[in-house]
Design goal:
Elements (H helix, E strand, L loop, with lengths): L4 H17 L10 E3 L5 E3 L2 H8 L3 H12 L5 E7 L3 E6 L1 H13 L11 E5 L12 H18 L3 E5 L7 H12 L9 H17 L1 H16 L2 H25 L18 H10 L3 E4 L2 E4 L14 E4 L7 H14 L5 E7 L3 H14 L8 E6 L2 E2 L16 H17 L7 H21 L7 E2 L2 H4 L7 H18 L15 H10 L2 H11 L3 H20 L8 H24 L9
Parallel strand pairs: 5-6, 5-10, 10-11, 12-13
Antiparallel strand pairs: 1-2, 2-4, 3-4, 7-8, 8-9
Helix pairs in contact: 1-3, 2-3, 4-17, 4-20, 6-7, 6-8, 7-8, 11-12, 13-14, 16-19, 16-20, 17-19, 17-20, 18-19, 19-20
């Protein structure tokens, strides 16, 4: 795939800076942005002037001269104290659009980089709730984006399937001889609460539950068999939720906490041998560099508890070591709640101190904010629990079906339901993804389903509208290149924006924020809708102009669909 427009301008700016300052082009990061005074603006002359000891406008004039030689630029002008305004060459722009229209390429060449993305991570024997929506859809979108841009992605679903809570659950199952296969999904989700209530109320049961943990960890056949059945039932439930939500997590992507159990002693031993962990009040603690408490002492990261049990830190450290050594990850991205910020920061520093990771930038925590109710607090039902994910998905599809049925009287019921699913799930996902990951948002289904504004339905409708135009005209848009002319400023602006998809995708990857891609798609939908409403297509008697506009709209449809697919969102058949 070709460089994006901004990348092309940046490369020309780097080359100019190298000639002016004698610096390594790779060391210079050009400041290029869209401009209201031209197509793009380069703001490097001021910083380059300081380095060269020359006047900014003098440097800007040289920079403008060099940039004017770039194949994508038709005019470069100096403005203000030293800005360089660039106007793209229409011939170059149209040729790039023609390539987009005829090319079947969907991604860049491979980067040779292997990226592990850890996301979703529900707990066995607990129902997935709306809080899991964010970690799941943001993680999946980032995985799609990394793959699209050429990275080899390994998805990892680090489910909670080990530890003390399972002593309670398994003891309850065995004591009452509960047949797991006969339990409904809701029954499985209530197991922990029921077992916990008995644990708190019955000292004898509590002691038996603690012993059950020992039996599980020691491999007792009866306990392990029942534990495996419980995990299998929960995994089946998780996969049902993922299929309904339309995310790419498969059963083979699961590596739960239990997977690392046999490595925990070795992790502790290695940390002790390297002088990175020591006993503190009977617990083995790592003391990563740079973390100091209010008392001025180094903060401990508890790896092994005083009772000999292992904490989350031990499992998470074992996972980092496994992913870097066995999976050969060049980068690990964790899509996990924002409250875990300190935990992951200490984990990452410990892994660096241990030498399991060499580059601090190869570990990233994409912090996820909360789903909020209308009161601005974490969304909960009247009973005080977070709403089930399955209920939220079902409500979204049902609301979308009612909305479609009111506008599509007599439509095929099966098609209507398919469209409602794409609309409802898409609205839910887009509302989540269009919010910066670390920011919470209010769960408002009516707002999510609005066909206007910064919503999924707005972008989806832009696609449906363009497809209807294609059907009306009978034009085969993907078999013809763009005609080498723009007939209006609006067409040219749409054409420039069409080339920005790959830049928006790369920005979303670099920032760990699919919201940047959502913003791009909303603006593309706005430009497309504005042009659609302003110009005549079916009634235009000028065949060349009609063909050019149909081709431009065909590229627009393709780019909108590609962007939505990266977010994991389908397009309804009708709206």
């Amino acid at each position: 795939m070709n460089l994006t427009t901004i990348e092309t301008i940046q490369q020309a700016t780097r080359d100019s800076a190298a000639r002016l300052l004698g610096v390594d082009p790779a060391s210079h990061v050009p400041q290029v942005r869209r401009s209201t005074f031209a197509d793009f603006q380069v703001n490097d002359a001021l910083s380059m002037a300081r380095a060269a000891g020359r006047a900014p406008r003098e440097i800007a004039a040289i920079l403008a001269r060099d940039l004017a030689e770039c194949e994508c630029v038709s005019r470069a002008e100096v403005s203000g104290p030293g800005y360089v305004n660039l106007t793209l060459d229409d011939g170059w722009l149209l040729s790039r659009l023609a390539e987009l229209n005829t090319s079947s390429a969907a991604s860049r060449e491979g980067t040779g980089r292997r990226v592990v993305i850890d996301y979703s991570s529900p707990n066995v024997a607990k129902s997935m709730h709306v809080g899991h929506l964010r970690t799941t859809v943001v993680g999946d979108a980032l995985a799609n984006i990394h793959e699209h841009l050429g990275d080899e992605v390994i998805r990892q679903n680090h489910i909670g399937d080990w530890g003390t809570p399972f002593g309670m659950i398994l003891e309850y199952l065995l004591t009452d001889d509960v047949d797991i296969d006969r339990l409904s999904q809701n029954d499985v989700g209530r197991l922990y609460r029921v077992a916990r209530a008995r644990f708190d109320a019955d000292p004898a049961f509590a002691e038996q539950a603690k012993q059950r943990v020992v039996l599980l960890q020691s491999g007792d056949p009866t306990t392990v068999t029942r534990w495996k059945a419980l995990v299998a039932r929960s995994v089946e439930y998780f996969q049902e939720q993922y299929r309904e939500l339309g995310v790419g997590l498969a059963e083979q992507d699961i590596r739960g906490e239990s997977f690392y159990n046999d490595d925990l002693a070795a992790v502790c031993g290695e940390l002790e041998a390297k002088g990175l962990a020591s006993l503190s009040d009977g617990a083995l603690c790592a003391f990563p560099r740079g973390f100091i408490g209010r008392d001025g002492e180094r903060l401990p990261l508890i790896v092994r508890k005083s009772d000999g049990g292992y904490g989350y830190a031990a499992t998470d450290l074992a996972a980092i070591r496994f992913r870097t050594s066995e999976l050969a990850a060049d980068r690990i991205v964790y899509v996990v709640g924002a409250p875990q910020r300190l935990h992951f920061a200490m984990l990452f520093q410990t892994a660096l101190d241990a030498g399991w990771v060499q580059d601090p930038d190869s570990l990233r925590h994409v912090e996820i904010g909360n789903v909020l109710g209308q009161d601005g607090k974490i969304l909960k039902t009247r009973s005080g629990d977070a709403p089930l994910l399955s209920e939220a998905l079902g409500d979204a599809v049902d609301a979308a079906e009612r909305q479609l049925a009111s506008r599509a009287d007599g439509a095929d019921p099966a098609m209507l339901r398919r469209s409602a699913h794409a609309l409802g799930i898409g609205a839910l996902k887009f509302a989540d993804l269009s919010t910066q990951p670390g920011t919470g948002y209010i769960f408002d289904l009516a707002r999510m389903l609005k066909p206007t504004g910064n919503t999924g339905p707005y972008v989806q409708y832009a696609v449906v509208r363009l497809r209807s135009l294609r059907d009306k005209t009978g034009f085969a848009p993907y078999e013809a290149a763009i005609a080498p002319v723009f007939h209006s400023a609006e067409e040219r602006e749409l054409g420039i924006h069409l080339l920005d998809l790959d830049q928006a995708t790369a920005d979303a990857r670099d920032a760990g924020s699919p919201a940047l891609l959502c913003d791009y798609l909303v603006e593309l939908g706005r430009l497309s809708n504005a042009l659609y409403e302003r110009v005549s297509i079916t009634g235009d008697e000028d065949a060349d102009r009609r063909r050019a506009r149909l081709s431009l709209f065909a590229v627009t449809e393709r780019r909108l669909v590609m962007g939505l697919s990266l977010l994991g969102i389908d397009v309804p058949e009708v709206m």
